[in-house]
Amino acid sequence: MRFHYLSLIALLASSSIAFAQGTAPGKARFDTAQTAFEEGDFESALSELRAAASLAKDDALLTEIHLLRGRCYAAFGDTNRANEAFTSALEFDPEARLDPARVRPSVVELLDGLRERLQAELSIRSSHSGALVFFDGKAIGVAPLRTSVPIGKHEVEVRTPDGALWKKQPVTIRARQAHELYVPLQEQAPEPVPGPVAETPKVFGLDEQKPRVDPASMKAAAEQDDAVRRVRFFADLRAAVEPMVDPVGVGGAFGVGVGGRDLLASVHGSYDGEDFGASLRVTARLSKLLWIVGLHAALEAPAVFLDSGFGLGAGIAGGLDFAATRWLELFLEGSYRRYFLLPAPEPGAPGFPEEHVVTSAGLRVWVP
Q1: First vs last Cα of the chain: how many Å apart?
Q2: CA-CA distance, 57 to 64, in Å (whole number)?
Q3: Into which CATH architecture does domain 232-366 fall?
Q4: Conformational region of residue 127, where left means phi above 0, alpha means psi within -120 to 50, and beta covers everything else
Q5: pLDDT in tens, 127-138
Q6: Assessment of whether the complete model's pTM goes beyond 0.85
């Protein structure tokens, strides 16, 4: 019997030790990484942080791990990976911040700009269809609705047009997640007004309720405001390579356009060392691979001006775009163009090829 008791005690002790070892290393590895970072050994810090992230289970600790990862990559000058690490931190805590007294201002701005730029999908339903929806005090439409909103802590208010039923509800929006919110409406006591309020003359019939609002006009105004907010002008500059010709063709292009979150229209001028060209493009953003890296596709109508005439064509393109900041995007693209030359060249005669496969990369600058 005594042997069984001793065995049980040993088993419990070993389980406790194993449990402690399973939870403590995440914090221990993070502390080691922090020491390495402060000593300027960023490679060792990143190695320890990868180990810590694989062990940690607590959202607060994972947030700190990814924030320090971002600072390491920023110290290397790798903005892309710094953005990816900061996005992971904001996924665990959308209110995560860096101390400006301890962190370089450029790195603090990188995280703050990312927080302002990141959005997530929010679906709002209510017990009363047609109720007005406000997000942080701003009208965004009529329930039910689905929209994109900034990450972070916010307040949603839903109320009937006559103001008789209403409710305010806090919501935390996290990156890379879809959120659903159901708001049941009920009569609420008037919100307390702080401090003394000067008396105003009462108008019979209007003191007992909030002003009536037309849901249709509010929804239209909210959609119009959202559309205007998203549409901006931009300019882009690209370098292009045509690898399937001999010798390999190299050129560049400059374009200006207007666009929003999902659709862009632009006009471009190009030069490849021999011929000038122009094109009209319509580009659609298709989906996100990561939160700040997306796919796009484009249709274009190119023209080329030759010594012997000119050519008109049609083309398709597709590629990746990366939002480096709120006003700067980088992109990588492949395209195919088919030209119809005027006058038509003689069969087999050397000259400008009718088919072109082009790889290009560049940057797009948005006007604030």
Answers
A1: 79
A2: 12
A3: Beta Barrel (2.40)
A4: alpha
A5: 888 899 999 999
A6: no
